[in-house]
Design brief:
Number of strands: 12
Shape: elongated
Largest sheet: 10 strands, mixed
Order of helices and strands: HEEEHEHEEEEHEHEHEEHH
Radius of gyration: 18 Å
Number of domains: 2
CATH topology of the largest domain: D-Maltodextrin-Binding Protein, domain 2
Structural class: alpha/beta
Number of helices: 8
Helix content: 25-40%
């Protein structure tokens, strides 16, 4: 993910994906720092997780998000209690949590973000189009589909999918939703889904892990169409990792081992939350792997 004008957004999510904001910021930034080993500041007595207290479907203080569930799984495998440091995933999140040594890992972070040292990715997902399953757009698979002409699409301003909307001539009728928000106060994704269900917009474009969750909550279930057939740039699929402090290579390797050995259980959690999973190249995974 690079911080060019074109790629402006977050691969971290989402990941609401930062909650929509940081995720947004993380999707757009690329270029990791040097991986020199530093002193180990990781707690030996607990799994200390940095998380947003109000950022479903990723995390909240009640432990209802899929990142909460993954953190619980890791803590169980490590045989340690789980402790959280809560801070809104917006500007200052990494500085006030990971860098102040108040916690040791961010469960969901975009690969390549220079603010953290990334583990291996544990899932790849994509942006998606959400529509009424019984409406005229239910068969659409790409934003180039003529059926979308003159349709009103909801889109998070500044997200990578906005560029695709523009290139396909759909931006004129699109309805923008805020990117940089405090999810304790405002939830653009939920607002977008409410507008879709009410008929205010014809389709909703959002990060797949967010869309997959909210499509099933808040009213009648919507259809989630992963945007895996897009030909334009920027890419719409992103690798999501865990983030640790720069230089903590031993901790990174330990997390990599945990991810590798527990990938099936992690995938089961992601599927339960409706996260659209794709392969390394953005293609849909076979049904057996979903």
């Amino acid at each position: 993910m690079s911080r060019t004008k074109t790629h402006v957004w977050a691969d971290g999510m989402i990941r609401t994906l930062l909650g929509t904001a940081l995720f947004a910021a993380s999707l757009i930034i690329s270029g990791g720092g040097a991986e020199a080993q530093t002193s180990d500041l990781v707690s030996k007595s607990a799994l200390r997780v940095c998380a947003d207290p109000a950022n479903l479907p990723f995390s909240n203080e009640a432990g209802e998000g899929f990142e909460n569930r993954i953190a619980e799984l890791l803590a169980e495998k490590l045989g340690k209690p789980l402790q959280y440091t809560w801070f809104p995933m917006a500007t200052g999140f990494i500085r006030r949590t990971l860098r102040e040594n108040r916690c040791d890992v961010v469960i969901g972070y975009a690969q390549g973000h220079e603010l953290v040292l990334n583990t291996n990715h544990y899932y790849v997902s994509t942006f998606a189009l959400l529509v009424d399953p019984e409406g005229p757009l239910a068969g659409v698979t790409t934003l180039a589909d003529p059926l979308l002409k003159d349709k009103k699409l909801g889109v998070v301003a500044g997200s990578p999918v906005t560029t695709h909307v523009t290139k396909n001539g759909l931006i004129g009728s699109a309805k923008p939703y805020n990117l940089m928000v405090d999810r304790r106060i405002e939830s653009p994704s939920e607002d977008m889904l409410a507008d879709l269900r009410s008929g205010e917009i014809d389709g909703a474009l959002m990060w797949g892990p967010i869309g997959g969750h909210f499509a099933k909550h808040g009213g009648r279930e919507m259809k989630v169409i992963p945007l895996t057939a897009e030909k334009n740039v920027p890419k719409l699929f992103y690798r999501i990792t865990m983030g640790v402090r720069q230089g903590e290579l031993v901790w990174k390797r330990k997390l990599n081992s945990l991810i590798r050995r527990n990938q099936d259980e992690i995938n089961a959690i992601l599927r339960e939350f409706g996260v659209p999973l794709v392969d390394e190249y953005g293609a849909p995974l076979p049904a057996a792997e979903q």
